[in-house]
Write a structure and sequence with these properties.
Layout: H1 7-20, E1 25-29, E2 46-51, E3 56-62, H2 65-73, H3 84-89
Antiparallel strand pairs: 1-2, 2-3
């Protein structure tokens, strides 16, 4: 919260942000230990969860990262986004 922002405005902005995220999906590795990048354990099962506005609800379990990626993105090729300044140097 910005110190010069009225509380009511902050609450309204926060609620709008929460509603904008409803339906968003995420993946979590079902391996033991702390959560790591998808490239670390690509063969471990993944939990697919959906944000309902208040909490992440489990939707499905995928066999591995590739299956989970297909569930989320279908046939589309998913490319990592790289800032333009990095692409120029690449």
């Amino acid at each position: 919260m910005v110190s010069d922002e009225p509380f009511e405005q902050w609450v309204r902005r926060r609620e709008e942000e929460q509603q904008r995220k409803v339906g968003r999906l995420r993946l979590n590795t079902l391996a033991s230990g702390t959560e790591r990048g998808s490239h670390v354990d690509p063969d471990e099962p993944r939990l697919i969860s959906r944000w309902d506005g208040y909490a992440w609800e489990p939707v499905s379990v995928a066999r591995n990262w590739e299956s989970a990626r297909f569930c989320l993105f279908g046939q589309r090729r998913v490319q990592m986004r790289m800032p333009a300044r990095w692409r120029a140097a690449w």
